[in-house]
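In response to reviewer comment 3 from the previous cycle, which asked for concrete evidence that the modeling workflow produces usable outputs, we include below a single protein chain processed end to end. The sequence was submitted unchanged, and the resulting structure tokens are shown without manual editing.
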Amino acid sequence: MKRIGVLTSGGDCPGLNAVIRGAVKCSQQLGYECIGFLRGYEGLVDPVTYKQLNSKNTSGILNQGGTILGSTNKGRFVARSGVDNREEIDIELLAGVKATCEQLDIAGLVCIGGDGSLAIAQQFHEFGIPVVGVPKTIDNDLSATAYTFGFDSAVACATDALDRLHTTAAAHDRVMVLEVMGRHAGWIALHAGIAGGGDVILLPEISWNFDGVCRKIIEREQQGKHFTLVVVAEGAHLPDGAMVTRERRSENRQVALGGIGNVVAAEIQTRLGRETRCVVLGHLQRGGPPTTFDRVLATQFGAYAVETIHRGEFGRMVCFNPPAIESVWITEAVSKLRTVDPNCSAVKTARALGISFGDCGPKQSPPASKPQPAFAEAESPELAAAR
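The workflow returned the following structure tokens.
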């Protein structure tokens, strides 16, 4: 009997187990056995480690976070060390993976992962290994799909945090800074900021400065609102263009981001003398049960990936093109990151609500008869002191 192979690679996120379950159930319906390789791509070769997947050992995993197969973003399989930096996988590793698939009668390999993991899958395809990709990332930064599973769950986590920070910030008249994930794309910060009542949202895609942030805080003070919620994506650049990192970049790995929330909080407190606190959600956004939306999307992805293999269509990535589940070439999906358009409807809605992005707003030509000063609110002595 032919087999379907499944693996989960890269960082974990809610919904991985739902994909596995969907793939197993669909495989059984189409007459395939299903096996899961352990610890991502590492389980494919030297030593080969896998487990049989069936209705019994995948029962009850739909609502579980993490992955029953394990995952890793380290090891011998690295195909990308940056946004555009492709790393060639060792030819002997590729040959070993191909031999494993042939020996185990793998009709197709379902590779569940983000842009880095799918870049590996693309090299598998180029080597003649039958693969189909499933997009997984809480950052929602894969092009060619409207949503990736895990994103909605991460936004729900960040929104819940903002709901809780709102009450404590109001009780103590504090500025609260919430740092969320988002290396190159600010989707989590944008959606959670709108849903959680954020006052300032700082994104990698929109240049900002501390004057703009402080201006919004002073504006709220003048309206009698003595607390402010600031949401910042970990990949947001500082006004000087630098990124805040936790460690130096190691070989074949992207630099670990984190810490910009504390930098922002310290600067606000220094400039305005306001009591400011920072909360970093970190891996809380990756854990826990998936939301209803992510369960449905992940299940559809898993089933459609197996159907794509059954049709003999390889080198494809499953995608969500509302309302349809479809597939595109993996190269189309990983060639360009999906980032926030500063003029998209969500950003426009946020601005219409009075949310600040730490900038001067959309560029507009000032009236010729009465030019405006750089800072119209400069009458505030507190803002003047901050500047």
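The two ends are 72 Å apart (CA to CA). We consider this sufficient to address the reviewer's concern, and the full set will be provided in the supplementary archive.
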